[in-house]
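re: ur question from earlier - yeah i can do the single chain one, its not a big deal. heres the input i used so u can compare w yours
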Amino acid sequence: MDRKGGGNRTSQVMRIGLIDVDGHNFPNLALMRISAYYKARGDTVEWWWSDFIHYDIVYMSKIFSDVYSLDVPEPLNADKVIKGGTGYAIRTVDGKEIFDKSKDIDLPAEIEKSFPDYSIYPEFQFAVSMTSRGCPRGCSFCHVAAKEGRCAVKVADVSDFWCGQDEIKVLDPNITACREKRDLMQQYIDTHAKIDFTQGLDIRLLNQADIEDINKMRIGTLHFAWDNPNDDLRSKFEDFAKGFRRKSDIGMVYCLTNFSSTLEQDLYRIYTLRDLGYDPYVMVYNKPSAPKEIRHLQRWCNNKIIFKSEPNFYKYHP
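and the output i got, formated as tokens:
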């Protein structure tokens, strides 16, 4: 299979097929850029939908591992099939997900710089942006450091993704660790759009200037993470709660379970966050292998009707 991107320009109009392997639950940035690139060349771009139509190239993009998103069969009616995305570089070894950098395929530079074609996802009215890449943390359950490096760096401006939409979903893995974050934060402020940091803000790195910038933004739900049970981040969350303009419903905090924590450590994080005005949200690593108790914990915490009606997990009866 030819896995090289792009191909040489020919005088004939090409037919390009796209497959979002993960489904159409969220816009796939790579596919939107691929669509924009080929449409600008005058080629036909569409979602792959039939074995009876010939395609010059079919692009298959997969973000999640097989635990969360199974692969689909490769089309047989294309001269070239190109498969890419983080999901194709992840393999599971002894119950742990391993990122294989050698299997990670980058988009060609001429496609990477294309403005996303939002028209292929008309059901979503927001913009998506990734203005920085990389994360210094190197968490063993996360693939960002292996894929993008352990230094968060600016790679684009907000204008490379945003064209006036009322909301922007920010996909940067750790914008708070980026050296150029003051510039990026100001760019997001200047849009006057609602900003959603989908990957979470690193509470360990937030300083007063960050809080002041966030207070200038239109914010829906803020997202944070408290994944390592050995990091006692209570004081960090307290400091942000004091400086943030909202004093209730401060933000959602992802809490990783079934990785390296005990139930008591899970509950400490959940109870602490709740008491400080945050909304804890339990994430289960490798959920199929999780014990029943952890699956019950997830249901108790993430179902807010249950969580509010029974504040003590040990009194919760599934």
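The first helix runs from residue 29 to 40. not sure if urs matches, ping me
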